[in-house]
Amino acid sequence: MLGGVYKWWLMVGLFGVDAAKFADGPSVQPAFAHLTKLRGGATQDKKAEQTKTAEQTKTGKVWVTSSFTRDHVRFAWELPGYLGAYINPFSAIEPKTIESVLLTVNSINACPYCTGLHGQLFRMAKVAKMEGPEVEFAKVFATEAGRGAAVKKAFAKLVADVGVGKARNIRALCWALLWGKTTGNSINAVRGKLLSGKLWKLTPFDVLMFAYYGPLFLVIGIMNAGLKFAPNVAPWFHSLLGAILWLPQMLHILPAGLVCLVLRVLAAPFGGLNL
């Protein structure tokens, strides 16, 4: 059943069914309005909602439980657009632009895994200069960690510049890199505690996160070493490689996102449904 639901969701994201309706990402349905009026949730008043969104705590360099559960719901939502940036026939993004956007987001709280992977893909895509409205949006996204009034304003400008389909895919790429760099930095932080023998500094969350994502990022690290010897590639090959790399990420993000959504809903009566 979950597979069928996700296939429908993926088709919506890839082919832009009623794109404007989904342009702002996950929303809270009226049936849950009584929950969203609680502290930390959305609100029926649009101006107050914008204020609350702008005041949400920014995602830091490493995960904490609250930002992990909140952001993984969004990461799961953005998966179709993330894949669409590579293969959607109507709104795919040029490889040079993709790598420029991803490296721009990684410029704040940079992650060595992301630097290694996308630095090599940047070279392989033969990017001469990082510029364009997509890069300008990525700068704002990186500075604000994807949330707040400044990001909404920058996204509206991006839509005007490149269209809603491509804008949604660019934003999905930004969310994907936020996931990658924050998870990579968190993996390294836990590894540092393990190697230093300071096990008393580990939290249960650290252990669970490291066990879940550690193997994936080990593979990424090994792949980064191999990519140093890879030649420049044609755009179609870059898109194919991006779609292939999307798959293991999806297999980790989607289950985590669904679990986090359940946890956030269960906690909503106490803290609001803040996504």
TrEMBL record:
How is this protein named in the record? Carboxymuconolactone decarboxylase-like domain-containing protein
Classification via InterPro entries: AhpD-like
Which UniProt keywords are given for this protein, alphabetically ordered? Answer: Membrane, Signal, Transmembrane, Transmembrane helix
Q: Which chain regions cross the lipid bilayer?
A: 202-223, 243-267
Which N-terminal stretch is annotated as signal sequence?
1-19
